[in-house]
């Protein structure tokens, strides 16, 4: 992975950005796309910053449709921020049009580039280090969901079909075990068995969607902590980023995925499992933040499923990591050969602890609802 972009000048110029490039710096936050911060000087000493990102078109197979989703959603969010008197350049993302009017540029090697406003005076966080931080992330994701509540769901394509369809994720996982393309299955029999034993869990949300008991909403679908930008001064979550998977989904996908990543005492790829624990304290903080923003808009069934969503989304992600390990690391970026296995292990440890603590997690949701006056 290069730390710079060899054809940065050409790419920036395609977006109408001329001037001297002062710096190109890789931002190593995501497992999928290649993201860079670009600083450009206009000659008079004034520096402008941009976020230049190469979309992973192996993962996102219809990038043009994706950009269409993104343009609609960002325009909607921008309007909402404007209406609330917010700072649109810091509280919303904006994809710059290229000179040909398209919101992307494809270079001679076929690489698919976008260019966004750089959210200045803000930072991302890679780990939950306090309940306050997680509560702030939760508020940002809860608000994000409310802002998109009136966005026409039919106008969005599924950028990755069946992204959180756990039944199809389970089938993919099983196929990865059966074909064992990497010849690694013998190194993770225990982890494989752990996932296979939980097949029944995988159909719970799918069935509730089918029966009409859970409503589809416009959701983010990748609500990792580092997809929120926090204000450098106030620490508040000011902008939700990484909008490539905004599409029809369940509120529970967003809640559960945040819990998966954040309600843990260790990093997603911590090798020492003794350090990895589910944190009920962090769970409570997230539930408080999220429900304070979005709780009144949720149905009773959605609220009843919040506790379970954390476990299910963690199981799903663990299966995805383990499946990728078995497939030979073809999806997630990895730094070393067992990286995906290490990630799967942390996820399964969290699943196990969430299962053990499920009554307490459910009671926490009820307590938070009472505390906020949410009665369904
Ligand atoms: C990927 O790109 P990033 O790091 O925000 C993945 C998520 C996983 C996450 C696991 C499009 O998100 O679904 O939950 O890694 N995104 C995609 O850390 O597959
Ligand atoms: Mg991301």
Molecular structure report:
The protein has 2 domains: 8-118, Phosphorylase Kinase, domain 1 (2-Layer Sandwich), CATH 3.30.200; 131-372, Aminoglycoside phosphotransferase (APH), C-terminal lobe (Aminoglycoside 3'-phosphotransferase, Chain: A, domain 2, Alpha-Beta Complex), CATH 3.90.1200. The protein starts with 7 loop residues before the first helix and ends with a helix. The longest helix has 28 residues, at 300-327. The protein contains 12 helices and 10 strands. It is globular. A hairpin with a 5-residue loop joins β4 and β5 (112-117). The mean pLDDT is 97. α8 runs antiparallel to α9 (280-294), α8 packs across α10 and α9 packs parallel to α12 (358-372). The chain has helices at residues 8-14, 63-83, 88-91, 131-147, 166-179, 189-196, 204-210, 251-262, 280-294, 300-327, 339-356, 358-372, and strands spanning 20-27, 34-41, 47-55, 105-106, 112-117, 122-123, 217-219, 228-231, 237-240, 247-249. By secondary structure, the chain is α+β, with helices and mostly antiparallel strands. Residues 29-30, 224, 226-227, 242 line the site of magnesium ion (MG).
């Amino acid at each position: 992975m290069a730390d710079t972009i060899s054809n940065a000048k050409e790419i920036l110029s395609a977006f109408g950005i001329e001037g001297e490039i002062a710096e190109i710096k890789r931002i190593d936050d995501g497992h999928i796309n290649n993201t860079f911060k670009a600083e450009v000087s206009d000659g008079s000493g004034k520096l402008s910053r941009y976020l230049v990102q190469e979309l992973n078109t192996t993962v996102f197979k219809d990038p043009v449709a994706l950009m269409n989703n993104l343009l609609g959603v960002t325009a909607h969010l921008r309007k909402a921020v404007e209406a609330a008197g917010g700072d649109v350049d810091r509280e919303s993302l904006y994809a710059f049009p290229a000179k040909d009017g398209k919101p992307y540029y494809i270079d001679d090697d076929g690489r698919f580039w976008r260019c966004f406003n750089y959210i200045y005076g803000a930072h991302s966080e890679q780990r939950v280090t306090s309940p306050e931080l997680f509560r702030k992330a939760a508020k940002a994701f809860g608000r994000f969901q409310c802002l998109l509540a009136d966005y026409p769901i039919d106008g969005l394509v599924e950028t990755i079909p069946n992204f959180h369809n756990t039944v199809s994720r389970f089938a993919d996982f099983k196929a990865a075990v059966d074909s064992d393309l990497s010849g690694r299955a013998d190194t993770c029999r225990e982890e494989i068995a752990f996932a296979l034993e939980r097949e029944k869990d995988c159909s719970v949300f799918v069935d509730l969607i089918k029966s009409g008991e859970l409503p589809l909403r416009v959701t983010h679908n990748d609500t990792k902590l580092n997809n929120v930008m926090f204000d450098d001064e106030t620490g508040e979550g000011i902008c939700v980023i990484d909008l490539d998977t905004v599409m029809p989904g369940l509120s529970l996908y967003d809640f559960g995925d945040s819990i998966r990543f954040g309600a843990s005492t260790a990093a997603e790829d911590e090798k020492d499992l003794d350090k990895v624990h589910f944190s009920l304290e962090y769970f409570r903080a997230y539930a408080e933040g999220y429900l304070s923003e979005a709780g009144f808009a949720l149905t009773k069934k959605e609220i009843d499923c919040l506790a379970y969503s954390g476990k299910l989304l963690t199981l799903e992600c663990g299966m995805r990591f383990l499946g990728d390990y078995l497939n030979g690391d073809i999806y997630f970026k990895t730094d070393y050969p067992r990286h995906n296995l290490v990630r799967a292990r942390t996820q399964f440890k969290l699943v196990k602890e969430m299962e053990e603590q499920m009554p307490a997690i459910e009671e926490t949701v009820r307590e938070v609802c009472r505390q906020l006056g949410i009665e369904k």
